[in-house]
């Protein structure tokens, strides 16, 4: 296609020049203007797209020729190589689309693992959804609402991740352990926690926009048959021409679509509040812990603002990993900040060793190092520390005696706050 176009351009130029040969300086000017005009109309990016292979990708991991090995690493079934992003050299857009298509398959794969490997059950939301209504879902262990002792709730960050994932990039390039929530779920269940996995980013379904009807068929009925036929014929011609032009102009135009929000789940914050109101707050469990990564931390603080008393009554510890919550922007009152001081810990990306205190300029939860400078790895790197932290919180809860140093830290931090 590209070659044909170049030949076309060159021959046009040649013909134009040939026609103008005897002319004086004026004629030459005209030629170069025409040439410039012609060239300006060629959009290089559009030309690139014309050489792009169709955006059709495999629908399953097998068809992609990848599988997860026994270490949970994604490997090519024949070569054993990790995922190769640059499948086509120099076709970045196409490679990106291919990567996204693989990502969708990964999401389905992780959903499957949650059910088959972790024995979680899928629960659709909203709870009173009709059959044809768009739905979201969460995953819960059998005992999530009946476990009398403890419940662990997992919230991932924003973006393409879905239930069960911390980072898609890690799942594809590293392994399932670092990129998914599966190790947290399994360890939690082993330690006797009920588990709820939120799905905060599934906020709407995408449907293709209905095409505008050019002519209503119903209104044509009283026209004479012959005239109608002629009209239909010419309409078909017009459409054919238009489609051809459209295809030529924009060969891989993405489908026009619109979003239909999922009721009571149209944002991460609304989803979390809904799950709190319909599940967590109604469960008989005494001690709830949260693990929240990145934007999930902000979502937790938002829940706290909306349900302060309830959260304080049920939640005993919150492990944040590189949380992006912002107590200045969010409408946080002092009673919440004080609670967070005592019941939250934020494992942040840092060059310091794991669990080393990291100075915080904010009057909210204490920060410690996650032992990595990579944002997406913070949950996996602080895995053991987080479970230790929860165990300590549970023990403190059972003895009802607060360690003395907590009090000192708190007052010294408060002084710092007042200086800010
Ligand atoms: C048919 O035409 C009438 C006006 O003649 C219009 O009011 C009506 O909406 C049209 N029907 C459809 C289905 O477009
Ligand atoms: C769920 O959505 C419906 C309809 O938009 C609304 O009336 C209802 O209050 C919502 N319920 C909750 C718990 O948010």
TrEMBL record:
Gene Ontology CC annotations of this record: nucleus
SUPFAM superfamilies linked to this entry: alpha/beta-Hydrolases
Signal listed as a keyword: yes
Domain of life: Eukaryota
Molecular-function GO term, any one: siRNA binding
InterPro entries noted in UniProt: AB_hydrolase_fold, Arb2, Arb2_dom
Domain annotation Arb2: ranges: 57-354
Signal peptide range: 1-18
Keywords in alphabetical order: Signal
Region (Disordered): 211-264
Basic and acidic residues composition-biased segments: 224-237, 243-259
Gene Ontology biological process terms in this record: regulatory ncRNA-mediated heterochromatin formation
Full protein name: ARB2 cotranscriptional regulator A
Organism: Callorhinchus milii (Ghost shark)
